[in-house]
């Protein structure tokens, strides 16, 4: 039976998009305390189908699909630019397709403005009105207001009209940054994206016998099953090794591996892969905050996901991407990489940052190991023997030497030189993840 928390989440999920939600309303509708209602609303917000906006309240928004994550709702824009909603609150759940900066004549501006757009403009009342009629929301910069008939039109059309104290350039930068961050997140695959959901997961109960395991094994061809109690909380894992030689009426609870390793829905697939390889696990149960079973992931699921990530085009650069792009193979020295220390990659003293040093050492080791074995690298242990100050705009050479490569592990010694002088040295132990 679903808990009160889960019932509230289901109730919120079934509300129409754009519906306003309050703690008191949920508590009254579901006959629960306001504390329970508040926790459920926060959980719904974390799951992405509720958004809370200052001076507006909490509203039900469209749950984003993974492939559509780079799009923002108007509700999120309000939070990003610390805006004030002047009208059209019922349209805050709608998705922004693109934004248009209104720094041109009105007629030209309207040629670029259409349905689903956000027009960023100053105190130009005519532009506000025409943008709304064209199906676009409006963001007024400089802290300006608009006329009452425009606010009324926004309410009628359910298109937000928002005011912010920031200037146009700052607002555009803030929205761009938010979209850019979303693009980076798009590349990160989480357990929730690949798990076999609970409805399709075969599991056993703590009161089941070995005979039930044999039935499930015959039906599915699988030999590993999670074991749950009456509340669906994970209690253990049972495999073919556990039931070999056991009587048919023997209890599963006494034979299972108790307190198994689990993952959450928001755990990255890379972390799950690291865990499965390190512990030698074939199947991992995925659980929620209450340790209730949500589904399972297998090693095959993880490998497929890693292959998919490899094939996807790069759509957002992280700090690591920016640094490793500067790491190039030396044309004169075989197996050596060169790297120029730019000003943004230094510390407050103007010398190479410790974090940058570890990143380029890791990347050089990764590229060297790929000559021996294809796949991904996860650093298990890194020992930095020393690092000398390297000034900005210096060109350094990174010389990795692979000492040992096994089926699952690699050991690499890395030396860093500047103008022929040794300025850094590290030893890395790495886990290797096959693709």
* CATH superfamily (homologous) name of the largest domain: HprK N-terminal domain-like
Name the average pLDDT. Answer: 83
Strand content: 25-35%
Name the strands of the widest sheet in spatial order.
19-20-22-23-24-21
Number of strands: 24
SS-derived structural category: alpha+beta
End-to-end separation = 40 Å
Pfam family, one: HTH_24
Domain CBS: 195-255, 256-314
InterPro entries: CBS_dom (IPR000644), CBS_dom_sf (IPR046342), Diverse_CBS-Domain (IPR051257), DRTGG (IPR010766), HotDog_dom_sf (IPR029069), Ser_kin/Pase_Hpr-like_N_sf (IPR028979), Thioestr_dom (IPR006683), WH-like_DNA-bd_sf (IPR036388)
Organism: Falsibacillus pallidus
Summarize this structure as a short list of keywords or feature phrases.
435 residues; Arc Repressor Mutant, subunit A; Udp-n-acetylmuramoylalanyl-d-glutamate--2,6- Diaminopimelate Ligase, Chain: A, domain 1; flat; five-stranded mixed sheet; 35% helix; CBS-domain
